[in-house]
Amino acid sequence: MRVLAAMSGGVDSAVAAARAVDAGHEVVGVHLALSASPGTLRTGSRGCCSKEDAGDARRAADVLGIPFYVWDFADRFKEDVIDDFVAAYAAGETPNPCLRCNEKIKFSALADRALALGFDAVVTGHYARLDDGVLRRAVDADKDQSYVLAVLNAQQLSRAMFPVGDTPKPQIREEAAERGLAVANKPDSHDICFIPSGDTQAFLGAKIGIRPGAVVDADGQKLADHEGVHGFTIGQRKGLGLPGPAADGKPRYVTGIDPDSGTVRVGSVEDLQVWTVEAERAIWTSGVTPEGPIECVAQVRAHGGMASAVAEAVGDGLIVRLREPLTGVARGQAVVLYRPDELGDLVIGSGTISGTGGSGSAPVGSDAESAATR
Predict the structure, then answer these.
(1) I want to staple 19 with a disulfide (CB 3.0 to 4.6 A). Which of 27, 163, 210, 212 is the partner?
(2) 206 φ, ψ (degrees, to nearest 5)
(3) Is 351 marked within a binding site?
(4) Residues 21, 29 contacting (CB under 8 angstroms)
(5) What does pTM read for this prediction?
(6) Is 7 within any annotated ligand binding site?
(7) What region, left, alpha or beta, does residue 142 occupy, with left being phi > 0 and alpha being psi -120 to 50 degrees?
(8) Concatenated DSSP letters of 101-156
(9) Are the C-beta atoms of 15 and 39 separated by less than 8 Å?
């Protein structure tokens, strides 16, 4: 096959491209320029798309002996990832920009251009596995990225390749060193590449501006003022601007955000418990919407936030009823559904969280829930 290797400049994508070459594919490397001013992106261990990374990707392609190009996706990245990120926080949501980048840039804009140029598939260094079109968790659970790939539909998965998902990260580094790739010991990227300072709140404040509001307790009593709901996320404990803990001495957490009124509600850790999750924009990786309830494991964060559950498609969305509560579940996050089997967890589908139900919701297995699902 003729495949396009998306080379970020890191060790994973370099080894993925190398393995594609070993498999006999005709491989062309491409690095995505995601900023009109690359110097504003993070560098070193805190970046993924900087000028430094472009150079590392080019040198890796030279070692592999494959053609290499840099494609400009700065406008698409700004519109589909950065602007979406800012708008979501302004609406009181907590988005995952890496998830949106995969959906809109790497496996939509990039893949579409690749297909138009005659490529059969796109190769990336994501830690996930594809088995006859079925997306599964990576062998290395600590590096697994299936959560941020669960937004891909069946068509997108059919033209994707994840060559490193069957190998633990330490072995990938060893392989890179054996191949003479200079990125073998390059640190992993962290945080958000388009926020150079690492200060997300300051970045959002500069984009959104001051929108005053109040921090209130569960009874609606005002506790403090704030400069915008974009400075908060569900489950947040620090930086709330409060004079001290609750009257019982326990810490307070953000339990609710109303972007219209600018109100941020705080409460106890118990108030964070969620038993039901509603989501919109459901994506079923098989391409077929399942009928009836689905036994699954629901995950609401890239690493952690998992519980056994029963999910069901509802119109264009889905509802997930948890068997045990989760905390820190916010609108704008993705809920990803997995089905464990003997080959490893497979991804059933995903949705963007639009609402949650707390302690008043009936957990799966209760009399009320059993009646509701019969």
Answers:
(1) 163
(2) -70, -30
(3) no
(4) no
(5) 0.90
(6) yes
(7) alpha
(8) HIIIIIIIIHHHHHHHTT--EEE---SEEEETTEEEE-SSTTT--HHHHTT--HHH
(9) no
To the question of whether residue 189 is assigned a binding role by annotation, the answer is no
Domains of the chain: residue spans and CATH: 2-179 (3.40.50.620), 210-268 (2.30.30.280), 271-357 (2.40.30.10)
Query: Is 6 a known ligand-binding residue?
Result: yes
Would you say residue 124 has pLDDT above 90? Answer: yes
Tell me the torsion sign for CA atoms 37, 86, 112, 138: positive
* pLDDT value at 192 more than 90: no
- Hey, is 201 helix, strand or coil? helix
First to last CA, the chain: 49
Number of C-beta neighbours around residue 30 at 10 A: 23
Q: Determine if residue 241 is labeled as part of a ligand binding site.
A: no
Q: In what order do the strands lie in the sheet with 160-161?
A: 68-72, 26-33, 2-6, 121-123, 160-161
Angle value at C-alpha 157, between 156 and 159, nearest 5 degrees? 75
Q: Is 365 annotated as a binding residue?
A: no
Whether the pLDDT of residue 60 is over 60: the answer is: yes
What's the CA gap between 312 and 321, in Å, rounded? 9
Which element (helix H / strand E) includes 170?
A: helix 169-178
Note the residue count of the chain. 374
- Look at 42-46, 145-149, 279-283, 299-303 and tell me which has the smallest mean pLDDT: 42-46
Q: Is 15 annotated as a binding residue?
A: no
Question: Looking at the predicted structure, is the pLDDT value of residue 47 above 90?
Answer: no
Q: Where in the sequence numbering do the catalytic residues fall?
A: 101, 193
- Which of 156 and 132 is assigned the larger pLDDT? 156
Alpha-carbon distance of 51 to 57, in angstroms, equals: 10
Q: What is the pLDDT of residue 70?
A: 95
Question: What is d(CA 354, CA 197) in angstroms, rounded to the nearest whole number?
Answer: 30
DSSP SS3 for 177: helix
Mean pLDDT calculated for residue range 181-192: 86
